[in-house]
Amino acid sequence: MKHLLLTIDVPPYGSLHGYLMTVNDRRDIEIASDKMLNVAKKEMGIDPLPIILCTDLDEEGKTIVRDIVTEVSQEAAELFKKADHFHFTAFYVSSKSNDHKKLMDLH
Fold this sequence. Notes:
The structure is a single chain. By secondary structure, the protein is α+β, with helices and mostly antiparallel strands. It has one domain. Helix content is 47%, strand content 29%. The protein has helices at residues 25-42, 59-72, 74-82, 98-106, and strands at 2-10, 14-22, 53-56, 86-94. The chain has a 4-stranded antiparallel sheet, sandwiched between helices. Helix 2 (59-72) packs across helix 3 (74-82) and helix 2 packs antiparallel against helix 4 (98-106). The longest helix has 18 residues, at 25-42. The protein is globular.
């Protein structure tokens, strides 16, 4: 299974990130990207440029992303364990957060 980090810039707030676990990466990347763009538009009121950073994660990157996500969602930690062919979590990180730099450095 591939592990990917997707990122959309949502100025002036920071970034909307997505952690994607997939075996069908091309199709799932498109679906996850569309979901993230919709969240930015509908929930954040932002019409971002449709530029999405997409990076394959190694074990260290996977650990960094999972640690950031599970800080705010223990439910996500359980879902990571159960995923066998697909998982997607979208999350917002302020540009002022230390986590923002950690995530951007993965790209």
